[in-house]
Amino acid sequence: MNQVALTPVDQLPIAPAASESAAILNVIERMATNPDIDPDRIERFIALKERIDASAAKLAFSNAVADAKARIAETPIFKNREGHNSKRYADFSAYAKVVDPILASLGLTYRFRTSQATTISVTCVLTGHGHEEENTLTGPADTSGSKNAIQAIGSTLTYLQRYTLVQALGLAASDDDDGAMAGAGDVITDEQRDQLLAKIDAVGADLPKFCSYFKIEALAGLPAARFDEALRLLEQRRRK
Prior knowledge:
- By secondary structure, this protein is α+β, with helices and mostly antiparallel strands.
- The chain has 2 domains: 11-69; 78-239, no CATH class.
- Helices cover 50% and strands 13% of the residues.
- It has 7 helices and 5 strands.
- It has helices spanning 17-32, 39-73, 92-105, 149-168, 190-203, 207-213, 227-239; strands at residues 81-82, 88-89, 108-116, 120-128, 131-139.
- The strands form 2 sheets. A 3-stranded antiparallel β-sheet has the order 3-4-5.
- Helix 1 (17-32) runs antiparallel to helix 2, helix 2 (39-73) packs across helix 3 (92-105) and helix 5 packs parallel to helix 7 (227-239).
- The protein is elongated.
- The relative contact order is 0.09.
- The model is unreliable at 1-16 and 173-185 (pLDDT under 50).
């Protein structure tokens, strides 16, 4: 039987991802025309191409997000609303006015998924260049003030949409707060943030009020130096 001479996977020349992907596609096409080629071998090459394409997509996505973050940092986001504590803040529409055109120019877009059980969850899905990443936050309905049940849900939804978008883009809390956090030092790690989110959910704490107490826009902006304090406050709530 005549065999098509093929370069082993581990001996393929090193090249930029796009060129490498195209070269592997060419190999796959040649293999597909040869009935003597083991189908499993074709599948391995297909899997290799998918990994290379996924890696290239993630790199392009990460570069676009980095560019977006830099451009957003150079554009003021106006605080157009006043909260119950008289502190001014930028609502979701103020963020969208700045963020949306910048993301669109870089091939990025976002959408939200929501779910509701005992608490409300919002997931921001940031997509672009064949790759997507998700950030999820959960909180109770905002029953402060004279809100009815629907208004309470709507308030939490818009709140969590704003915060998940901030986290998806990796924006620092100081980018949009009143400057109170300027120079506060390093912020908590992703693992510490997840630990606090789990604790907040376990004790039934109010995420918006928790963030307001620490004068941060999103939990990811909590100064690392105040992590232990945050845990103690939540533990105290558990013991009540």
